[in-house]
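Re: magnesium ion structure - here you go.
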Amino acid sequence: QAKNAGRNTIRFFDPQMQSVLTQRATLESELRAAIDNSEFQLHYQPQVDSTGTIIGAEALIRWNHPVRGIIYPDQFIPLSEQTGLIEPLGQWALEQACRQLMRWSEDDRTQNLILAVNVSARQFHQDNFVEQVRQAISHSGASINHLKLEMTETMILGDVSGAITKMKQLQSMGIGFSLDDFGTGYSSLSYLTQLPLEQVKIDRSFIHNLPHNENNATVVQTIISLTRSLGLKVIAEGVETEAQRQFLNQHGCLHCQGYLFSRPVPIERFEQLLQLHDNHSQGYS
Ligand code: C2E
Ligand code: MG
Ligand code: MG
Ligand code: MG
């Protein structure tokens, strides 16, 4: 045992390893402070139908770091997962999204918008997750039918039946589920039939080289026809070009999200996009 401890100690003082650990520790303590200091913000990326009408948005978290500026989720969500900080952070995002849905419900022009919120594995697996969602909704007064939760396949691994039970409880409250990044994970087809899903979201890695990449074109067509024949809705993420949008629409994927329409933007800008769209139903530029 002493020998093992010795080895670990030596490895711990490897200077490179040490600096990674220091960076992580710094990030972790900054994240904790950032939660207390409300340094987080949701950005909203439009989701559109085949006419280009905005039907909703995905809420994407950003960290407005006082020194480093905007930090994107790939740089802090994984560590938040590992340290458990995702629990307060995820709850914050959910509450924030519900407050936004509440505000939208007060205006005819926005009351039908759907807001999709990403949920991480650890957040979902908390014992009281269903209760947390219920509270976020009831505290905000948001309409439950307009909240969508984005899950990934990897989240469900390990305890499929437990996940299904939880999802069904939330579904019975009126919440819809979208299976995010579809095609990149395990893509077990049994999930598609077992989980109470409303929608499947085709991962952007299949979209970016459409329509010229024949393999991806085939994969995308297959996902679309599979999901549709199972009675599920389908949306594509990462749509950047008109050619991609056309390919998707022609093959029956009518809902799209991506830089072609807009990057994720602060709420003020998102609401401008809604108005712009009202005025000129042709485009966004
Ligand atoms: P995701 O849920 O798959 O979100 C889509 C990502 O694709 C977003 O990155 C978005 O900005 C980016 N994207 C959208 N359109 C395009 C496009 O046309 N081209 C390209 N290249 N990228 C596009 P973002 O905002 O950096 O978020 C990364 C990931 O972080 C998300 O992936 C999601 O897994 C996670 N995340 C974001 N917000 C939250 C949150 O509130 N809670 C949790 N648990 N995870 C979150
Ligand atoms: Mg997502
Ligand atoms: Mg995604
Ligand atoms: Mg993703």
